[in-house]
Amino acid sequence: MEKVDHAFVDEIVKAGADRIRTCIQCGTCSSVCPSGRRTAFRTRELIRKALLGLKEEVLSSPNLWLCATCHTCLERCPRQIKVTDAIIIMRNMAAEKGFMLPEHRRASMKLLETGHAVPINTANREKRVSLGLDEVPPTVHSHKDALDDLKTIMERTGFKDLIEKQEAEK
After folding, report:
1. Are 110 and 49 found together in one domain?
2. How far are the Cα atoms of 87, 116, 142, 154 from residue 145, in angstroms, in the given order?
3. Looking at residue 108, what DSSP letter applies?
4. Which domain holds residue 157?
5. Does some domain include residue 153?
6. Is 53 helix (H, G, I), strand (E, B) or coil?
7. Residue 133's pLDDT is what?
8. Each residue of 144-155: b (16+ CB within 10 Å) or e?
9. What is the secondary structure of 59-72 as a DSSP string?
10. Cβ-based neighbours of 96, under 8 Å, separated by 6 or more
């Protein structure tokens, strides 16, 4: 049986999801979730487990990473709980504990390297040209100084260290 961590919900609240305790488990979040229609993701279940203090179960769950962060749950929540914020907070906690899906780790490494989780490839360059667009979008792909700024932000926020730690542990 899993150990209950009664301080878990306090950590989530302190990190910015202050209304999570007002959840009445009505199920609106799960019923409107576009990700939940196609995956095993159940928003209400995740929030309930967090409220119960099942920290390890929540943080180690691959389902935590299935949220599309679309904010539909917040838009429909009768209590105006910032569910997406709570999920992002729990994802951050999970990443700090080493629970990160390999796909997210790879996308994060690409972000560190190129400034994009999905860098532009030859097919996309050709498609852009065929549509009359510049071959390279006006992002860090075409602005080296912006990539340097982004890398500085990732270093200062600790994102770079977190992802590199994840890579080293894998």
Report:
1. no
2. 32, 14, 9, 14
3. H
4. 102-169
5. yes
6. coil
7. 95
8. eeebeebbeebe
9. HH-GGGGG-----H
10. 162
**The domain boundary residue, chosen from 62, 78, 96:** 96
Contact predicate 157/163, CB 8 Å = no
DSSP secondary structure of 7-39 = THHHHHHHTT-TTGGG----SHHHHH-TTTTTS
Structure confidence by residue, pLDDT tens digits, 46-57: 999 999 999 999
Among the three residues 96, 118, 133, which one is the final residue of a domain in this structure?
Answer: 96
Q: How confident is the model at residue 131 (pLDDT cuts 50, 70, 90)?
A: very high
2 located within any domain: no
Instruction: Determine the distance from the C-alpha atom of residue 117 to the mean position of all C-alpha atoms in its chain, rounded to a whole number.
Output: 13
Look at residue 35 and tell me whether its pLDDT is greater than 90.
yes
Q: Give, in degrees to the nearest 5, the angle at Cα 169 between 167 and 170.
A: 65
Q: The tokens of 86 are what?
A: 């709570």
Q: How far is CA 45 from CA 2, 29, 130, 139, in A?
A: 16, 10, 46, 38
Q: What spatial distance separates the first Cα and last Cα of the chain, rounded to whole Å?
A: 27
Give, as one character, the DSSP assignment of residue 141: T
Residue tagged 């009359």 (tokens): 132
In a domain, 1, yes or no: no
Number of domains in the chain: 2
